[in-house]
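Quick start: what a row looks like.
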Amino acid sequence: MQGNRLVVSGTLDGSAIKEFNERLGSGTVRTVVFEDSFGGTAEAAGAFADAIRASGVQTEVRGQCMAACAYAFLAGKTHRFGYGLQVNGIMLPVAARPTAAELAVRWRGDEAHKTLADFTPAPAPAAATVTTAASSATQAQAMPMEANAPAPKDNWQPEHGVLFTASPSLFGRIYNTYYCDGTQGRDFSKCERLPDADPYKLGVLTP
């Protein structure tokens, strides 16, 4: 805690969700600050987001907030970048390069929930499970079903998504938006810059 601000850093793996809920339940938190969180699990992201949404607190990013962190960040009543001289960045996961039309609505309201659904693995079909007691005929029938089973959905990849950055300058903050396909690793200078993708207009940041 920093006054009425609750600072969350590191990987969102669910290990701190109980303490997080207790802190929010105390009624003393006005803003959840995500600081240098480079990912986590979809399940943990959903748990953090639900708690933030239910409590009605604001969210803020200091430094980097990627994948699971970014999804939790969007659940704030208002969601902003922190002030200061640091470069702030938020990486929102996508399964494929979004079109301009998709960008316009992707992270607004209920649409933000679909982002999490895209990255939550579907349960394996029970019919495709082969037990040791199954006959060879049953195994032969099960094999095609396994081949046709849905492929696992894309997981949280911190380097794959749409990256919004804010850099300090003499004339105020400069905002840029990029699509990163994951091949660039942490060298985000290799990402593709997206024109007309202001984070405020897209609803990623609120005034």
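That is the whole record. The CA atoms of residues 22 and 51 lie 10 Å apart. The longest strand covers residues 160-169.
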